[in-house]
Amino acid sequence: MIILYSGKLQMKFDPQKHHRRSIRLKDYDYSQAGAYYVTINVQNRECLFGKIVNYEMKLNDAGKMIEGQWNALLERFSNVELDVYQTMPNHFHGIIVVGAAFMAALDTNISENKADTRPAPTLGDIVGAFKSITTHEYILGVDNKKWPRFYKRLWQRNYYEHIVRDEADLERIRDYIQSNPADWDEDEENPKFKKI
User: Fold this and answer.
1) CA-based radius of gyration for the chain
2) Domains of the chain
3) pLDDT tens track for 18-39
């Protein structure tokens, strides 16, 4: 249904049509202990973090900032361990391990002082913090270091995740992440492959 509002045509909100679909697993608790493979893409696939030279990623200052903020997640979230990661010209891959150390510490805190009732951060909380902090730092780089500007947002709205199922899955993902620069010419995130 279309309605006229202030002389402009507008569509009436229809919750069946106008809602964001989640790409997360329904009813899955993303705060539970586990390993997660995440991919975060730059908006419009802009190559802002460096370039591939001789099958290796050469980070620019923005790319170095991205990696620095990824590693800083260890200071922000006591329940996080980081595994293999790779900054690419226009996206980022990483494996985040959530939970086990945090849950042990939480059990100790509860038994000793019973005051800590904070819920464990979810994978979304962790990735959201990373995206927010890196966006802020990138804007500072644009203002102070003449980094290339981006349009509206640094990162795409969402991110891709995969729950690591077992050791074989983990090894396959690690290999993919580590070989990503060598495979850049065939990578679907490479801007030379224009999506229609």
Assistant:
1) 20
2) 28-186 (3.30.70.1290)
3) 444 444 445 555 555 789 999 9
